[in-house]
Design brief:
This protein is α/β, with parallel strands linked by helices and 448 residues long. It has helices at 28-40, 45-58, 96-99, 209-217, 252-267, 297-308, 314-322, 369-381, 401-409, 434-447, and strands spanning 7-8, 62-64, 77-82, 85-90, 101-107, 112-123, 126-134, 147-157, 160-171, 199-202, 224-233, 238-240, 246-249, 274-280, 325-329, 332-333, 356-358, 387-389, 412-417, 419-420, 428-431. Helix 8 packs across helix 10 (434-447).
Length: 448
């Protein structure tokens, strides 16, 4: 990955990445290639929002800063970043308080390992990197892979702080040979404190992680005052399956939704209603941050949109929320042929079958009759097939940003997503067929 030039701490980053498909809505297998390129450019949430911002700029969007006073007019296409989160929008011609906004939401983070502040370890002749699990990862899937470190360095620059996006280094988590632990035949249990510490190299003098990344960023290691770094698989996303339509890739949960939301926003023209895309960080760990779905980011942007486009009092914001709808987009569980009994028999989404409408009686998903009908109508308008998912009554259900955003804002919300296999694995499996279908469905939501 390339490293961007110096940027102030609160200004969007830029990661150069050649992509001939960036200015057009993807179709067919080209859509799968476009998603694979997006994933490869996004080894961390910070890289993901930089890649989204790059694509948006190529499509005519311009950056805003939260520190500036916003002046907006109908037709304006803008975006704003808050750390590893992004909100982008096209301003509609009608007042928001009268017609509301149409929103699509996703999240930028994925289960991984986060590098600890004091991470340099030396044990038994090896140099290691201290990490801890981030989110509900399938730890065994990270074993015996070539891994790298990705994220941001926060560096002293003059009188302020500058962020650098970085990717570098080579690490590995070797399995223990079966000869030394034959109990693995009954099931592998890994202790994250003792057994999930990646190897950096032999215990000899040489550069550590920060030295390698600081050199890549062109800064002195002693000027690095902070970092948000995670591990990432180094193997590029790939086309696979007998007909080449499957996508084997890391972080499909939930970069596939970030990609679809970005492509959908680029595909729609400015209309009467304002179209808004939000991609929040920290969903995998509960969304409890300033830029997460529990935080104020989306609400702050919507309030400023209302004020900058003619809103006259606090009631105009609440009227906007009441007239708005949100499609919360996160991946769904495809039917696994080896574990079919783990699915509710009447709700079995498949790879390549189109978007999945997710429902949960206990509100792990925000879908209700009205929001579900809205999304179903959007899919019908776009000639997109629709699948359905509910969990078995005797199994717990995962959740996403939908219920959190609906709770915080009071906006009518539906939870949807593309079906994948291997969710929370280091490398997941999706279908290129679903990519243009999800883009078309979300574009129809923006237009509805």
């Amino acid at each position: 990955m390339a490293t961007p030039a110096d940027v102030p701490h609160d200004v969007p980053h830029d990661v150069p990445h050649d992509d001939p498909l960036v200015n057009e809505a993807p179709h067919g297998l080209d859509a799968g290639a476009d998603l694979r390129a997006f994933v490869d450019a996004s080894p961390s949430s910070f890289h993901a929002v930089a890649e989204m911002a790059r694509r948006l700029r190529a499509g005519g969007f311009t950056a805003l800063s939260e520190r500036d006073r916003w002046q907006l007019a109908p037709g304006d296409a803008r975006y704003v970043l808050r750390d590893g989160s992004l909100v982008a929008f096209r301003v509609g011609s009608a007042p928001l308080a009268e017609v509301g906004a149409r929103l699509v939401g996703a999240h930028t983070d994925s289960p991984t390992f986060k590098v600890r502040p004091r991470h340099e370890l030396r044990r038994a002749g090896f140099r290691q990197v201290g990490v801890e699990p981030y989110g509900g990862l399938l730890a065994h899937t990270w074993l015996d892979r070539e891994l790298t470190v990705a994220g941001r360095l926060t560096v002293r620059a003059g009188g302020g702080l500058v962020d650098h996006l970085v990717t570098g280094g080579s690490l590995r988590l070797p399995s223990l040979a079966i000869h030394l632990d034959r109990s693995v035949r009954e099931g592998l249990v890994l202790d994250p404190q003792r057994q999930l510490i990646p190897l950096w190299g032999p215990d000899v003098e040489g550069d550590g992680v920060l030295a390698v990344l600081a050199r890549q960023a062109g800064v002195a290691e002693h000027d690095v005052l902070g970092h948000d770094l995670v591990l990432a698989d180094t193997v590029p996303a790939a086309a696979t399956g007998s007909d080449g339509t499957w996508i084997a890739a890391p972080r499909l949960d939930n970069l596939s939704s970030c990609h679809a939301g970005t492509a959908a926003l680029l595909a729609v023209e400015a209309g009467a209603r304002t179209a808004v895309l939000v991609a929040n960080d920290h969903e995998e760990v509960g969304s409890g941050s300033a830029e997460g779905a529990r935080g104020s980011f989306l609400g702050d942007v919507l309030q400023r949109l209302v004020a900058a486009t003619g809103g006259t009092d606090a009631q105009d914001y609440h009227r906007t929320i009441a007239a708005s709808r949100l499609a919360s987009c996160d991946v769904s569980h495809a039917l696994h042929p080896n574990y079919a009994d783990r699915h509710e028999a009447s709700h079995t989404p498949v790879l390549g079958g189109g978007p999945v409408l997710k429902v949960n009686a206990n509100q792990s998903y925000a879908t209700d009759a009205c929001s579900g009908a809205w999304f179903s109508a959007a899919c019908a308008d776009a000639d997109v097939p629709l699948q359905h998912f509910v969990s078995r009554a005797d199994l717990p259900c995962g959740s996403t940003i939908g219920p959190l955003t609906a709770t915080r804002l009071g906006v009518s919300t539906v939870d949807v997503g593309a079906a994948i296999l291997g969710m929370h694995s280091c490398r997941e499996l999706g279908s290129a067929v679903d990519v243009p279908l999800m883009v078309a469905a979300l574009a129809a939501c923006f237009r509805s």
